[in-house]
Amino acid sequence: MTVSIFIGALLGPMALGVPIAFALILSGVALMLYLGLFDAQIVAQNVLNGADSFPLMAVPFFLLAGEVMNTGGLSRRIVALAMAMVGHIRGGLGFVAIFAACILSSLSGSAVADAAALGALLLPMMLKSGHDAARAGGLLASASIIGPIIPPSIGFILYGVVGGVSITKLFLAGIFPGLMIAAALCITWFLVARKEQFELPPKESGAVRLKALADSIWALMLPVIIIVGLKFGVFTPTEAGVVAAVYSLFVAMVVYRELPPAQLFHVFVAAAKITAVVMFLVACAAVSAWLITVADVPGALAALVEPLMDNQTLLLIAIMALVVVVGTAMDMTPTILVMTPVLMPIIKQAGIDPVYFGVLFIINNSIGLITPPVGTVLNVICGVSKLSMEDLMKGVMPFLIAELIVLFLLVLFPELVTVPVSWFGH
Question: Which residues form the TRAP C4-dicarboxylate transport system permease DctM subunit domain (predicted)?
Fold first, then answer.
């Protein structure tokens, strides 16, 4: 009964168009009334405490770094480097998109920011070369979701804070799975685009490639600084966010000089608006998270999945299927905030490594960004490409299947996540 009340109180208001943040509070209040614990002070206290977290301070700084990256020329130079290196091979613009997405993901940690950058920079070029619009848009959308997987990742930060998991370990654990998804996209793009008739850009000379590399070296140094700093304990993930923001501002304003001081205010405002949305969701989710614990919702769910508790693979497959379904109706941030406190006790009880589960969970939530009807990344690409959601979904489908296959392989072979982490000394 407790689970039914929680789900009904959450999904009912959402179906009526109530913003997710307020629906989270309503679901918590509904549980409080059911348990006879209602107290407005408890609601207020949990909202305040929910956003009062040192690790969460990384979120605004990484979001600011993403805004600076797109405005200050870092994204454009990354795309230009990828274009110079692989743009001339058959289907090269698609490989450029995937290559650029991997690098951009190590700068911003946001799929939406990467989708906006890739869509604005590459989609017109792909259409001009003769690529199918839906297929090109589908690839760009699918490549953008690498952003929350390869560190730094805002999704990993939220999961680590809510689940009490090491964010540094999550960052390092996401590198190899992110590259696996990139490889799967490359294979899929090669298969679907080989029958297309399109114009190939000319092969750039060695001098042009070196110039593109030299021009982008400042942008490429940022992920190196973050990963090396985290590995050797130079700074925490929160401090890494500060480093990323300050470094990107320095490069955009002093080195590239594409971010004039007059535009700085607008960049800060844009980052602040996105931060406000994320942090308000986190604060409101703290109410429902507290009630989830008090009402022992994880215990009720554990009883439902008890037949699977002795088989970690089957349990993970069942949970991943559930998250895929939830991801079609909810955006990434609320899904993490709602489901992490529910699933974490079950994961620990089943003896599953929370870091390993976190990688699977964030990959699954990232895939949810390209599944309708919510599909935030789909909406971004639709806005850039002027395609309908139906047409774009046709283009996304082959890449979506490839990413689900990678997720399934990671469920079957946990060492694909755990072994690469050990390479970094953890």
Answer: 8-416
